[in-house]
Amino acid sequence: MSGSEGSSGHSDAHPPPTSAAEEREKKKEKARVSRTSLILWHAHQNDATAVRKLLEEDRSLVHARDYDNRTPLHVAAIHGWIDVAKCLLDHEADVNAQDRWKNTPLADAEGAKRFAMIELLKSYGGLSYGQNGSHFEPRPVPPPLPKKCDWEIDPTELDFSGAVLIGKGSFGEILKVSWRGTPIAVKRILPSLSDDKLVIQDFRHEVNLLVKLRHPNIVQFLGAVTEKKPLMLITEYLRGGDLHQHLKEKGALNPSTAINFALDIARGMAYLHSEPNVVIHRDLKPRNVLLVNTNADHLKVGDFGLSKLIRVQHAHDVYKMTGETGSYRYMAPEVFKHRKYDKKVDVFSFAMILYEMLEGEPPLSHYEPYEAARYVAEGHRPHFRAKGFIPELRELTEQCWAADMNKRPSFLEILKRLEKIKEILPSDHHWHIFAS
């Protein structure tokens, strides 16, 4: 499950003490960065009081947009939250704002059969158009492959008797279960959320994305349960656990292992970033990189809950997507600052992972995740301490986390560079004596 990471890292080092004025400044900045997300969240939660308070502080938030271009009024309309909608309309929300599918709030309310909302929006001059191809689907979702039966799995085939919890998130849990005698991983949406339109939309988005992906360094999608509840997404189960846990247990990796791991991640990412259908992962971090087996000789990139499939028209297209998507500690500065960004956000996250593999601890581990992201957005970067940073590897890491995303290399370029670095490593080295 995706989302902002919990506090990780060591407590043996602390940032310098801050003055009360600095603390106030920090709080103000934190509030400013997350207000857009907050108003959408409070609209989703039917919290009219919180929405009103935010709008009193900043009227422009009534026009906030998420990555699908939906306004708080779209969110309120689809759920039928009347008080929230009234508050937004009183603050001059655009009643006919259109989302990515060209849907108006009224079209959403009609699709969701929110009759009181329909009346309210019409009284404010709401028009209904754009429902074609919307995220609200009155009919079953069209199959992404010619035959949906190729991947629709009958839930009775899943044996939960020896289920093991692998991970938990805000929308559901990931379990290791058995399917036709084989261990597999199941992402199961919480029953309480199985009728939530936004959750269903995100789930379908992930299924539609995964069904198209085929690569040795991408976790393999096996199928999904979409016709019965709870909704479930089924992928191969990888016995080695995730890279986060591996680094916690092993500490710093020797350069040779780190380069092999980096090559696997970069191969998977180069595949995702290939045009015309570019997939931006947006949450690349050690927890989402999985080890195929306990020998730790092969990695795969997983968890596409936050990924976005982008059809590239021009090589340098830049997209306005949700700011603050993913995990703060590995987040590119342009995402934190709610700026326009492109696939190079994944290259930045890759640099942070490469650093962590060689240092043996998360980047800026003495900062809380949010503070680490802010520190990075201000132009700072982690310090290299491990002796395992051979100059070429250090140079590559620094280029990958460049503040200017256009200066970061592509994953194809990264692969070439890593292969060259691998060639210059002495074959009879004992790198572990150098690693800190």
Automatic annotation (TrEMBL):
What EC number(s) has UniProt assigned to this enzyme? 2.7.11.1
Q: Which InterPro entries match?
A: Ankyrin_rpt (IPR002110), Ankyrin_rpt-contain_sf (IPR036770), Kinase-like_dom_sf (IPR011009), Prot_kinase_dom (IPR000719), Protein_kinase_ATP_BS (IPR017441), Ser-Thr/Tyr_kinase_cat_dom (IPR001245), Ser/Thr_kinase_AS (IPR008271), Ser/Thr_Kinases-Pseudokinases (IPR051681)
> What molecular functions are annotated in GO for this chain?
ATP binding; protein serine/threonine kinase activity
Tree of life domain: Eukaryota
User: Can you give the residue ranges of the Protein kinase domain?
Assistant: 160-435
Where is the secretion signal located? none
Polar residues composition bias: residue spans: 1-10
User: Which GO terms of the cellular component aspect does the record hold?
Assistant: cytoplasm
* The entry's keywords: ANK repeat, ATP-binding, Kinase, Nucleotide-binding, Repeat, Serine/threonine-protein kinase, Transferase
Catalytic activity entry: L-threonyl-[protein] + ATP = O-phospho-L-threonyl-[protein] + ADP + H(+); L-seryl-[protein] + ATP = O-phospho-L-seryl-[protein] + ADP + H(+)
At which positions is ATP bound?
A: K187
UniProt repeat feature ANK, residue ranges? 68-100
According to the record, the residues making up region (Disordered) are 1-29
Q: Name one Pfam family in it.
A: PK_Tyr_Ser-Thr
Protein's UniProt keywords contain Repeat: yes
Similarity field: Belongs to the protein kinase superfamily. TKL Ser/Thr protein kinase family.
Record-given protein name: non-specific serine/threonine protein kinase
